[in-house]
């Protein structure tokens, strides 16, 4: 059974994982096997547990111990559960409690690209996308619109960054993902070796409309999305089998990368 610990202030060392550690410290780059992530809200915590993530501790409002929190307490035995009233918990520096629940969880070992892509027909490749909100929103679209896996470059925002997890509504725990090393040349060769055709979402003179049937007809397709502002690097665009764009009106040249991902995932989804 979980150990319930009443807290009187937020300075206790056991709460540093929630109150003081930066995302980089949580990630523990020097010792990844010791890394942690923070899941926020009952829905997101439930999704992470369903995906097999291992909880380390919980922080929740006292009123939830006999209410909504009962489900989570039953699923997380033998871990400390820190609790206090909402007035105290809302004094967390720079942070408001998200519906009264936080859970520290262990980061899993990342799978290989081959493992993530096994059986996949549609994958998204995120190149250097640094905004956590965009990464979280892209994962949510990927989950909703039948993208089988997400691959991120090493300079991309960490999908398990606290805000990315929150914006994704927990879908970062549902969609298989991993890091593509040595991008773009080696990563592109790896994708092609796994049988994927590649399409760069970019505005060029040779860009096809995403409505072109040749794209949706591809059996296995990797959809490349580039960083905010400048988009994909030229080397990535040049190495792709196709370049595609979303038709626009009112002289709008492009969409935010998160919005563009949703449009592209829907139009380029596997049809059979």
Order of helices and strands: EHHEHEHEHEHEHEHEHEEHEHEH
DSSP helix fraction:
25-40%
Largest sheet: 7 strands, parallel
**Overall SS class:** alpha/beta
Distance between the termini: 47 Å
- Stretches where pLDDT falls below 50 for ≥5 residues? none
Instruction: Strand order, main sheet: write it out.
Output: 8-7-6-11-9-12-10
**Amount of beta strand:** 15-25%
What global shape is seen?
A: elongated
Commentary on this structure:
It is a single chain. The chain is an alpha/beta fold and 272 residues long. 31% of the residues lie in helices and 21% in strands. The strands form 2 sheets. Strands 8-7-6-11-9-12-10 form a 7-stranded parallel β-sheet, sandwiched between helices. Strand 3, helix 4 (69-75) and strand 4 (80-84) form a beta-alpha-beta unit. The chain is elongated, with a radius of gyration of 21 Å. The protein starts with a strand and ends in a 5-residue tail after the last helix. The relative contact order is 0.14.
Which short descriptors sum up this protein?
5-stranded mixed β-sheet, 31% helix, 7-stranded parallel β-sheet, 272 residues, 12 strands, alpha/beta, 12 helices
What's the structural blueprint in terms of helices and strands?
Layout: E1 3-6, H1 16-19, H2 23-27, E2 36-40, H3 42-50, E3 55-61, H4 69-75, E4 80-84, H5 86-89, E5 101-106, H6 113-117, E6 122-126, H7 132-144, E7 149-153, H8 162-168, E8 177-180, H9 185-193, E9 197-201, E10 208-209, H10 213-216, E11 221-225, H11 234-239, E12 242-245, H12 257-267
Parallel strand pairs: 1-4, 3-4, 6-7, 6-11, 7-8, 9-11, 9-12, 10-12
Antiparallel strand pairs: 2-5, 3-5
Helix pairs in contact: 7-8, 7-12
């Amino acid at each position: 059974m979980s150990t319930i610990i009443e807290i009187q202030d937020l300075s206790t060392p056991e709460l540093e994982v929630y109150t003081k550690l930066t995302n980089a410290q949580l990630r523990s780059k020097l010792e990844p096997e010791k890394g942690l992530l923070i899941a926020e809200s009952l829905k997101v915590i439930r999704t992470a547990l369903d995906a097999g993530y291992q909880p380390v501790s919980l922080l929740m409002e006292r009123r939830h111990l006999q209410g909504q929190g009962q489900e989570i307490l039953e699923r997380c035995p033998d871990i400390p559960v820190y609790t206090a009233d909402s007035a105290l918990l809302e004094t967390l520096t720079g942070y408001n409690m998200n519906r009264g629940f936080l859970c520290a969880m262990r980061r899993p070992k990342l799978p290989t690209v081959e493992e993530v892509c096994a059986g996949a027909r549609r994958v998204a490749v995120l190149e250097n996308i640094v905004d956590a909100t965009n990464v979280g929103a892209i994962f949510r679209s990927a989950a909703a619109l039948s993208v089988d896996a997400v691959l991120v470059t090493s300079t991309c925002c960490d999908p398990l960054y606290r805000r990315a997890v929150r914006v994704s509504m927990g879908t970062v725990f549902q969609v298989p993902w991993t890091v593509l090393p040595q991008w773009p040349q080696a990563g592109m060769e790896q994708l092609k070796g796994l049988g994927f055709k590649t399409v760069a979402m970019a505005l060029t003179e040779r860009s096809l409309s995403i409505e072109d049937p040749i794209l949706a007809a591809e059996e296995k397709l990797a959809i490349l999305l580039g960083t905010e502002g400048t988009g994909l690097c030229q080397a990535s665009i040049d190495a792709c089998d196709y370049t595609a764009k979303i038709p626009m009106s009112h002289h709008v040249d492009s969409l935010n990368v998160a919005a563009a991902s949703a449009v592209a995932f829907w139009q380029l989804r596997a049809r059979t």
